[in-house]
Design brief:
alpha+beta; OB fold (Dihydrolipoamide Acetyltransferase, E2P); 4 domains; 5-stranded mixed beta barrel; 20% helix; disordered C terminus; NA-bd_OB-fold; telomerase inhibitor activity; DNA-binding
Length: 512
């Protein structure tokens, strides 16, 4: 078993002198230790680490008595070693007054930090007098949503709460309290001590600064740090496929609601907001599913308001009641119709009556925004948005046009033709075996049996295209294909396992 002992050199030497066989060291032991010396930031509880240094040790075995006596005679008298807690040297800083710590280096105490917002909850009333909102932030040292630092923000009114709108917004905290909670670092923003500043880039390239303070600092170093984080966030959010804390599943598509239970997350476009009466109703769409399955009540509501109805994709409705006031106070309404939106913890119900709505045969899924639900706007470059845009085979800019543009375009102009792919079907099948609808396949009493069907691929597992190819057992030069497809036709859905000869490498990769 490997054992590492860290102690002062004279302690190790005395131990080896008294018990030379305690450790089975080679005679000429040589140890290199690489370390980063911590320094305390001025007027702060946080640390800064100096560049890495490497030190070496001499042989820990006792020297010959004559040599040892000579060394002791020539060596200056040593001070008595201090075995107490070693105080840290205070770092010498020539930078601005505020010293910002990387998120991965935070320790208990107060800190000044910058972070990229990757998740948030809406403000909720606590058992006391305050409202609480939780924000998850990342930076280059904590680059994934799963490793994000959570900051709980407390203020007596929603007006004082940070006005975060988008995933990807930058937030700066001064004097945020850092503490350990359930073995994780957590931030605590207190209304009397902490100051915040929310930053985002405008369309013209300038930085929008939002805070509840009457005065605040923002120097050239702050702008450099903000723009560096914004650039990093564009790349990070476009690639990060981890899930934020508290999220067990990735956001679902609207076409998958029939399989959903309890609470779900969605990333959708809001096409219409009906806030004339209680409750407020939002018409949402993400490009998945069939437009034929949409409730005609929702279709007519869009047409009556002059909103172009998407020619493809399922329409659904999100019902909000008292939470709408919070969404409005957080200034989300203006951007809701112009950007992709993420809903968290929407309650899924079936067959709940809605006045004036026609319930489709077999039941209809109802989405309700509860007290535990949350909302945030999503940038076009986020991975969840790009995945939904890929359903239509269109770049983000085409799909995320605002509703003013949708109103001026006809439905045929809004539709984006998917990329054309070539499916190779043997002539003997194409000519002799007719296409069977999924509905008939699912109800067929003859199983097992081969069918020729025409359906839309909704999903593939595994998601990584490189993982569908596996080497044959005992032969690393030959490969087989093994993956699962979920296909749909209208309201019918079927899972298909593709294995071995059912897949052809070149054609398969072209179609995926």
């Amino acid at each position: 078993m490997q054992c590492v002992v860290v102690a002062e050199r004279n302690v190790l030497k005395k131990t080896l002198d008294r018990k030379p066989r305690l450790f089975n060291f080679p005679h000429s032991l040589h140890i290199e230790v690489a370390y980063e010396e911590p320094q305390r930031l001025p007027d702060s509880d946080q640390l800064r680490y100096l560049p890495s240094k490497t030190i070496t040790t001499r042989d820990l075995h006792s020297a010959t008595p004559a040599r040892q006596t000579l060394i002791q005679a020539q060596a200056p008298p040593r001070k008595k070693p201090n075995h107490g807690k070693r105080p840290l040297e205070v770092a010498r800083m020539t930078s601005p007054a505020y010293r910002y710590s990387p998120l991965s280096e935070l320790v208990d105490g107060f800190a000044d930090i910058y972070g990229v917002v990757v998740n948030m909850t809406l403000p909720k009333k606590t058992s006391g007098r305050d409202f609480c909102m939780t924000v998850s932030v990342t930076d280059e040292s904590c680059p994934t949503r799963a490793a994000a630092i959570q900051v709980n923000i407390f203020y007596p009114t929603i007006e004082k709460i940070p006005k975060i709108k988008f995933v990807g917004d930058i937030i700066r905290f001064h004097k945020v309290k850092i503490q350990q909670y359930q073995d994780r670092i957590q931030g605590l923003s207190l209304s009397r001590a902490t100051r915040h500043l929310v930053l985002r880039e405008k369309a013209n390239g300038s930085l929008e600064q939002v805070t509840n303070s009457d005065t605040w600092t923002f120097e050239s170093s702050d702008e450099l740090r903000t723009r560096k984080l914004l650039k990093w966030a564009r790349k990070s959010l476009a690639e990060d496929d981890t899930l934020p804390q508290g999220c067990s599943l990735a956001p679902k598509l609207l076409s998958e609601l029939k399989f959903a239970e309890g609470f779900i997350d969605l990333v959708v476009r809001v096409l219409n907001v009906d806030d004339c009466d209680e409750p407020v109703r939002l018409t949402v769409w993400d490009g998945s599913g069939s437009a034929e399955e949409s409730d005609q009540v929702l279709v007519r509501a869009l047409q009556d308001k002059g909103v172009a109805v998407p020619p493809y994709g399922l329409l659904k409705e999100v019902i909000m009641s008292s939470c709408w006031l919070v969404v409005r106070e957080m200034c989300f309404v203006d951007g809701m119709l112009k950007n992709w939106c993420r809903f968290r913890n929407l309650a899924v119900g079936v067959d709940e009556p809605i006045p004036g709505a026609v319930i489709a045969p077999g039941g209809r899924e109802i989405l309700r925004f509860r007290e535990v639900s949350s909302f945030v706007l999503m940038p076009d470059f986020a991975l969840d948005v790009r995945r939904r845009c890929s359903l239509m085979g269109t770049p983000n800019s085409s799909i995320t046009a605002n509703n003013d543009q949708l109103r001026t375009c006809s439905p045929t102009e809004n539709r984006v033709s998917p990329e054309q792919v070539v499916t190779v079907i043997p002539d003997r099948i194409r000519k002799n075996i007719p296409v069977t609808p999924l509905r008939e396949i699912l109800s067929s009493p003859q199983t097992p049996r081969k069918f020729h069907c025409w359906a839309r691929v909704r999903s593939i597992w595994p998601n990584d295209i490189e993982k569908i190819c596996k080497p044959k057992s005992g032969n690393s030069d030959e490969f087989i294909y093994s993956f699962a497809l979920t296909v749909e036709e209208g309201s019918e859905c079927l899972s298909i396992i593709v294995y071995g000869k059912d897949a052809v490498s070149q054609h398969l990769q072209q179609q995926m």
